[in-house]
Prior knowledge:
- Helix content is 47%, strand content 19%.
- It has 79 residues and is α+β, with helices and mostly antiparallel strands.
- The chain has one domain.
- The model has no long low-confidence stretch (mean pLDDT 94).
Amino acid sequence: MLTKQELSAELESMDRWYSLHFAELVNQYAGKAIAVVQGNVVAVAETEKEADEVARRLFPGSFPLVVTVPQPEELVCLI
């Protein structure tokens, strides 16, 4: 089990990774749910639940980053 400090550091690391790779993820996985473990996309699915289950099955004990990657048109801001 992670301590609060370890969890916070892990979440910050995941956030940085997602920010750095965001454009690449949108180009490759738009509209799909992905799971990332140690900086690698390890599962692509239709739902976040499915992606999480695959990642945890492949990497037991892991704490995957699981997100649905937005479609490019979802990124357009209306002012």
